[in-house]
Amino acid sequence: MEKDISQAVISRLPRYLRYLGDLKDQGIERISSQELSELMKVTASQIRQDLNNFGGFGQQGYGYNVDNLYSEIGKILGLDHSYNLIIIGAGNLGKALGNYMNFEKRGFILKGMFDANEALHGQKVRNAEIMPMDRLASFIRENNIDIAVLTIPKTGALEYVDVLVENGIKAIWNFAHVDLNVPQGIEVENVHLSDSLMKLSYNIARSAETKAE
C-alpha cells in the first residue's frame, strides 16, 4: 500500500526542486542537508524527514547527489511526463501565463487558448491560438488535454466546469474566485491571488504593531 504523504510535505517539494535546479546550473554535484538547509532557511531535520517519505536519497558522509535528487523529486512530482494544457480566458492574466516559457521546460505544453471575446479570436500567444468557446469541447477531446487553466470570472468558470469534466480534463488550475464542485478523481488547484496579497497585508500590519510596542 502506498504511503499517505501529507500535503504539507508535497507543497515543499517544488521549492526543493527550484533550489536543486539552481545548484545544478552552478555545477554543484553534491550537497549536505545542512548546506541545503542554510540555503533554503529550513532545518536540516525537516529536509531529511521530507525526503525520507520517499526513500531518503542521501548517503551518510556524502550528502545528496544534486543531479540525482533533482531527477528523483521531478519524478515524484510527475515531471517525467508531459501534460497538454489549455488556458480559458485570454485577458491579461491568461496571456501572461501563456507567455511563461518555464511551463514548457517543466513539461506543461500549452495547446490552445479560449475566450468569449470575438476580437481576440485568431490571435496567438506564442504558438497558441485564441479560439471561441464553442470549440472548447471538441478541442479537449481531439488534443488529449490534461489540464485546464481558468482565468475567467467566476460565473464563466461555473458555466464551463461541466464541459471540462465531461470531455476528459484531469485537472483544473483555477484562478477564478469561486470554489468548483467536480467529481472525485478530478484534481483542482485553487489560486486566489488576492488571498496572498491579504496575507502579505496582515504580516505588514503585524510587523508594524510589533515595532510600535
List keywords for this structure.
2 domains; 213 residues; Arc Repressor Mutant, subunit A; Rossmann fold; alpha/beta; globular; two-stranded antiparallel sheet; single chain; seven-stranded mixed sheet
Unreliable spans: none
Spatial strand arrangement across the major sheet: 5-6-4-3-7-8-9
**Residue fraction in strands:** 15-25%
Q: CATH H-level name of the largest domain... which superfamily?
A: NAD(P)-binding Rossmann-like Domain
* Rg from Cα: 21 Å
What is the H/E string? Answer: HEHHEHEHHEEEHEHEEH
Major β-sheet profile = 7 strands, mixed
Give the overall shape.
globular
Estimate percent helicity.
Answer: 40-55%
Question: What is the CATH T-level topology of the largest domain?
Answer: Rossmann fold
Tell how many strands the DSSP assignment holds.
9
Quickly name the level 1 CATH class of the largest domain: Alpha Beta
